Amino acid sequence: MQNLVIPIIYLISAVFFILGLKQLSHPRTAPKGNRTASIGMLLAIVATLLNNQILDFQSIFIAILIGSAIGAILAKRVEMTSMPQLVALFNGFGGAASLLVATAEFYRADLLPIFIFFIITLSILIGSVTFSGSFIAFLKLQGIMRGSPVQFKGQHIFNGLLVLLIIFSSVYGHLNPLQTNNMFLITIGVSLLLGILFVLPIGGADMPVVISLLNSFSGLAACATGFVIQNDALIISGSLVGASGIILTDIMCKGMNRTIWNVLFAGVGSTDVNIDSTQLDPMKSIKSYEPEDTVVIFENAKQVVIVPGYGLAVAQAQHMVHELQKLLEQKGVSVKYAIHPVAGRMPGHMNVLLAEANVPYDSLYDLDQINPEFEETDVTLVIGANDVVNPAARHDTNSPIFGMPILDVDKSQTVFVLKRSMNPGFAGIENELFYKDNTIMIFGDAKDTVSKLVSELK
Amino acid sequence: MTGQLLIEIYVFVLAVFVGFEVISKVPPTLHTPLMSGSNAISGITIVGAILATGSMPGTISATLGMIAIVLAMVNVVGGFMVTGRMLRMFKK
């Protein structure tokens, strides 16, 4: 009877995960989806505890309590701006858990069949890379480690040799029973080193891609563990997460017009581009207004589009921007937000930051939805965004960002750009938008400027 | 044994397709909660961790399993809670 009940509960829990993810397709049903998935997890845990192989319940419950307490504290305390770090940390924990389970499985059996041995090695490799790689990503995102790429000569060849070493140690360990344990430890150590060396050369600006990819790895690690312990619940859930991470990685890469290989291996961001502002073309001139000069333009607008970049979150201006939105809407102006795929530090990050400031989700538009609307937009307000609104990406084949999908803000009647100074953005590229006839710069701290706008409009 | 492995590979391949179908329908607005939520789901490793801890008391495997339970549970509870916290912020 038990042989039948447990797998059926696992199947039900897998169905709950799929239904939960399905309900995540709309903000209205998403909270329900999250609950559905968590019930699925509860079922899987209960089913496992029903297994009659389990003798020691005390250790299990102690560990569950400790883990739950830590998880709850982290979830309650985290700031929304720090979500990328938290996700990196969770990815790392998932990888480490899979690594430990595979290791435990290795020590349990005396003689492993060849394919189980192979799968354990694979599980160790994915788990280790996810763990140590996520840890480095966490350090970079948290600012404990410098975001710039760390590279050395022959790095790719060295990494290739490490992979060969992993293959060698696992094969050698399998063929020589006396050396199995030593070789196994070498496999773990080298895999961990590979994870570190894999993330070190990737620049801070590319971290959204990396955490998406590591998210996928954490799923694949669970999946590999599922093959090791021959459990379909792990295989199904792991594949779902693996697929999710791959999709997000792809979206992030497309948002930057880069291939995954370019992100992982090119070390972009290593050369510091310093543009001396005195060297700028003297023929080019910019227009600069004070916030109070703009009121008439706002009041006569029918549609205003706000383009938030990460600079907006850094200045903590989200709440002020929402105030501005409410005020404009009271005056009969339609207000929309244009969200570029790489606007935040992880997929969908900007949307969460705006939602936290009570901005309704139906005023958030993604790139494809909003681009056709700029021609009918009277005022576009760019706050803390730079490269994602640079028209050079459309036509300047020499520009490093050529081909990147951008928000066509320059097509609107008037563009206000809120910026601290004329310093170039993350990629160190000059932005020709600032010199266009319909562009007006408003210099200063984003939060100050927006609050001045709000008080002027009142 | 090989039959079992083959079935697992079937399950894996089909689940990947289901994953792509379901997740490609999640709108960009919800991509961060999707990530933290799928993080919680990857905590399913807890199943393996519980089996390793409970079935071999006193062994090195049990100790490793116990650490794995703690880590996986941080993922599960932390992941679902933070996802819930974010999703409650999304208002019409």
Structure description:
The complex is a heterodimer of chains A (458) and B (92). By secondary structure, chain A is of the alpha/beta class. Chain A folds into 3 domains: 77 residues; 185 residues, no CATH class; 181 residues, Rossmann fold, CATH 3.40.50. Chain A contains 17 helices and 6 strands. Chain A has a 6-stranded parallel beta sheet with strand order 3-2-1-4-5-6. The longest helix of chain A is centred in the N-terminal third of the chain and has 29 residues. Chain A starts with a helix and ends with a helix. Chain B has a domain of 62 residues. Classes of the chains: A alpha/beta (458), B mainly alpha (92).
Q: Would you kindly provide a brief summary of this structure?
A:
The complex is a heterodimer of chains A (458) and B (92). Chain A has 458 residues and is of the alpha/beta class. Chain A has helices at 2-23, 30-49, 57-77, 83-108, 114-142, 155-175, 180-199, 207-228, 232-255, 260-265, 295-299, 310-314, 318-330, 349-356, 367-370, 392-395, 446-457; strands at residues 303-308, 334-339, 364-366, 379-383, 414-419, 439-443.
Helix content of chain A: 55-70%
Q: Structural class of the secondary elements of chain B?
A: mainly alpha
- Biggest chain pair contact, residues each? A-B, 115 and 80 residues
Poorly predicted segments of chain B:
none
Q: How many individual β-strands of chain B? A: 0
Q: Average pLDDT value of chain B?
A: 94
Number of helices of chain B: 4
**Helix-strand pattern of chain A:** HHHHHHHHHHHEHHEHEHEHEEH
Percent helix range of chain B = over 70%
Strand percentage of chain B: under 5%
